[in-house]
Amino acid sequence: MALVEVPGTIPLGDGRLGGAAVVSVAAVDEVGLVARAAALGTRSIKTSSKLAALDLAVRCMDLTTLEGVDTPGKVRAMCSKAVRPDPTMPDVPSVAAVCVYPELVATAAASVAGTGVKVASVAGSFPAGLGPLDVRLDEIRAAVAAGADEIDIVLNRSAFLSGSYRQTYDEVVAAKEACGRAHLKVILETGELGSYDQVRRASMLAMVAGADFIKTSTGKIGTNATPPTALCMAEAIRDYADQTGTAVGLKLAGGIRTAKQSWQYLVLVQETLGAEWMTPDRFRLGASSLLNDVLMQIAKLRSGAYQRPSDFTQD
Amino acid sequence: MPENLPEPVPTFDLEYAPAPESTSIVSIADSYGLFIGGRWVEPRDGGSFTTVNPATEEPLAEIATAGAADVDAAVAAARSASDGWAGWSGRERSKVLYRVARLLQERAREFAVLETLDGGKPIKESRDVDLPLAAAHFFYYAGWADKLGYAFAGRRPRPLGVAGQVIPWNFPLLMASWKLAPALATGNTVVLKPAETTPLTALLLADLLAEAGVPDGVVNIITGAGETGAALVGHPDLDKVAFTGSTEVGKAIQRELASRGTRLTLELGGKAANIVFEDAAIDQAVEGVIGGIYFNQGHVCCAGSRLLLQESIADAFLTKLRRRLDTLRVGDPLDKNTDVGAINSKAQLDRITELVASGVDEGAEMYQPACTLPERGWFHAPTLFTGVSQSHRIAREEIFGPVLSVLTFRTAEEAVTKANNTPYGLSAGIWTEKGSRILWMADRMKAGVVWANTFNQFDPTSPFGGFKESGFGREGGRHGLEPYVVLEDLVSG
Predict the structure, then answer these.
(1) A282–B454 C-beta distance less than 8 A
(2) Each residue's pLDDT tens digit, A144-163
(3) B13 pLDDT tier (thresholds 50, 70, 90)
(4) Lowest-confidence range among A80-84, A99-103, A165-169?
(5) A49 at interface of B, judged by CB pairs closer than 8 A
(6) Closest by Cβ to B2, choosing from A33, A212, A276
């Protein structure tokens, strides 16, 4: 699309965004978006496709614990599950990453060292994101220093919803810089943005500012990842790639508990962004309780019978 | 991507394993007779034809050909049932129609599978569109049956008598429902002729109507090709003819009926424009354009077969459109993941092929995704033509297939001129985020239906019908009652 001010362009004032040209933000029609997301949800995924999808869902999973009661013991147990999800099915792959609070990064990093499983840490005054900026940036640096490979921060919705796009953008740029070698995921907290137009605008803003991934939710509010939201963000990622040549990843988080949801999201991503996004480098599912349902479905597909929930390790 | 991560490579493609809908729920007889006066009868001269599965070219059943004597018998049966049915109270007719609607819901999967077998449309469309809408039409007109006294202020509606109804092959059961529900709700009796390539769901409906308690002779279903249809619409004892099909046949029917008092409604062809402005919600507009033309293989009279793109976004939009085209899954209509099924008949495939060739000959640029078509059956790849001008045949003639012609415009005035520059006027789509522009455009569209930021949405409460050579009369809504009633003034001057 043209490099001109068109309705929906993020007005950042200087006409340039971090050296990149202005990107345009397309409008979103809610009715059409919801209908398309629902249609993608009716794809029938059977047998070998289902197994392949579930295997990929495990490989793209950020196994997460973000509770005030998280302890080193709890995190070590989760890391062990992340590396080897099921002792009775040793060929089930490791998950992509474990996701924890900064205090527990060192424990997690020691637990998964050498396994290929990454350590992700929330940071930047998660989940509200309204601490002083220097505190937020220091928290990012501390998490990276403790061994985090990936940093999940929240977008400053206070600035974004008050129209201070420049501030919102500058803060993401600063967070990206603070990440150093670590991967930056920007959580939009879409359940608080109020419209799909805003979701799309926030997606473009985060990508222009340097996010490696854009992520739906913190999991700490009532409305988390939904198929229309995922589609809206995937379409923004596709537009951004078209306009700039840069591929940004998508992380869906919050409320994803069933294997069926996971393959429905994989279908949505594949049919929107293509096979190039069907990799943990570009797609993640953040979840705490999804893994066991996926394992149960894998075991069912292999053995032909459902097993008891208690047959799977509860960490 | 950060340096510490390897460059992603396309390592994974989630291929969809076959997910065929089981056909065990339907049982198709070897042969079918005619449904006249509540009984299955053999045609007088014993003629028949074969209906085939367009996805496999395999025969499904032998279907009776109704000759002139059979048409006579069917009309006579409808005539003799007419006074009785018209004498039923509205509430009793309503009860029966509600029962029809509920039975359609209960047997939805059976009807959907049969529709797909006989017509070639994807099972997801039969299942999610045809069947729910068919039931909805019966529900809606069942609601009117006991409230007709309130439908026309100051006037009392009376049934016309006997209606002859001829329906097309693109939505066989749905078109039967569109035609039958208002006719029955208003107390008319009917002789219905389904299309010769798709008679099976109408014949199954005959049994369902009887099960629901529709009295013998109120609905008669006769089968055959054009000659049977001509004998029906030309029958002197009809009070009303309703036809959905090609403009050519519609004109012939109108000529035939010109000298008689028989009432007529026609729902004919179209060459609708989907008009996308630069401020539209682009990704949803792409979906709307795709659904507008590739839904039901483009066998849709109101299909958005012309895309008018504002020139400033044409290249970007076409890039997205081609990419979306690449993801359409063409193949076995019974597979739940099929988006584009089989072309309904060999004759229709030949017509589409001929028009596509004319597009190439006339200099338009053709794009088709790299999809593998099944070896057997009649299939056509989804096709997109760019560089089309108004004078090209593919911009003027109804193709009735999965073929989209793309034209560009610069201003809203030009879009209006181009959109209306067609002998047809059935539908139009307007895509813009600007509400005032939607209203400005809708005022100027010479089309029976104008969709804004959506396309191909149907609802029994909404009237549907055409301008110009797309026909006249409305189906759906309160408007849909009018073609089936005589209105008597309650107050005399």
Answers:
(1) no
(2) 999 999 999 999 999 999 99
(3) confident
(4) A165-169
(5) yes
(6) A212
pLDDT at B46: 86
Tell me phi and psi for residue B263, to 5 degrees. Answer: -75, 150
* CA gap B94, B186 in Å, rounded: 10
pLDDT (0 to 100) of residue A10: 52
Q: Which two tokens stand for residue B229?
A: 């249809």
Architecture of domain B273-460: 3-Layer(aba) Sandwich (3.40)
Please give the class, per CATH, of domain B31-268+470-489: alpha beta
* A36: contact with B, CB 8 A cutoff: yes
**Pairwise CB contact (< 8 Å): B12 & A53:** no
Place of tokens 């803003």: A205
The DSSP output letter for A113 is: T
Sequence-distant (≥ 6) Cβ neighbours of residue B29 within 8 angstroms: B61
Out of A26, A48, A279, the one facing B8 most closely (by C-beta) is A279
**In the Cβ-directed half-sphere of B180, how many Cα atoms lie within 13 Å?**
29
**Contact, B330 vs B373, CB < 8 A?**
yes
Q: Count CB neighbours of B371 within 10 A.
A: 16
**Domain limits, chain B:** 31-268+470-489, 273-460
Structure tokens at B376: 């057997």
Contact at CB, A267 and B287, closer than 8 angstroms: no
A55 in reach of chain B (CB within 8 A) = no
pLDDT digits (tens, 9 = 90+) for A269-282: 999 999 999 999 99
Q: What is the CATH number of domain A49-303?
A: 3.20.20.70
Tell me the C-alpha to C-alpha distance, in Å, between residue B225 and each of A9, A10, A203, B342, B403.
57, 60, 57, 21, 26
Nearest to A27 by CA among B452, B433, B275, B435: B433
Q: What pLDDT does residue A16 have?
A: 43
Chain A partners within 8 Å of B286 (Cβ): none
Residue B407 pairs with which residues in a beta bridge? B308
The per-residue pLDDT for A23 is 80
A212 touches chain B (CB under 8 A): yes
DSSP string, B240-294: EEEEES-HHHHHHHHHHHTTS--EEEEE-----EEEE-TTS-HHHHHHHHHHHHH
Tell me the two tokens of residue A97: 């990453």
How far is the C-alpha of B84 from the C-alpha of B96, rounded, in Å? 15
What ipTM, to 2 d.p.? 0.92
Chain centroid to CA B433: 29
Residue B4: closest CA among chain A residues belongs to which residue?
Answer: A181
Contacts of B13 in chain A (CB under 8 A): 270, 275, 278
- Given a cut of 50, whether residue A7 has pLDDT beyond it is no
Structure tokens given for B426: 């059935």
Residue A50 corresponds to which tokens in the numbers above?
């289902």
Question: CB B19 to CB A46 under 8 A?
Answer: yes
Task: Mark whether A152 is an active-site residue.
Answer: yes
Quick one: tokens of B297? 């293989």
The pLDDT of residue B11 is above 70: no
**Residues in chain A closer than 8 A to B278 (CB atoms):** 6
B368 within 8 A of B384, measured Cβ to Cβ: yes
Q: For residue B80, give every residue at least 6 positions away whose Cβ sits within 8 Å of its Cβ, in sequence order, or none.
A: B37, B217
pLDDT at B2 over 50: no
Mutate to test the interface with B, among A44, A60, A283 (most CBs of B within 10 A): A44
Q: Give the confidence band of B493 by pLDDT, cuts at 50, 70, 90.
A: low
Query: Which among A152, A212, A239, A293 is annotated as catalytic?
Result: A152
Residues of B in contact with A41 (CB under 8 A): none
pLDDT per residue as tens digits for the range A32-87:
999 999 999 999 999 999 999 999 999 999 999 999 999 999 999 999 999 999 99
- Tell me the residue type at A234: A
pTM (2 decimals)? Answer: 0.93
Which position has the token pair 């019974």?
B334
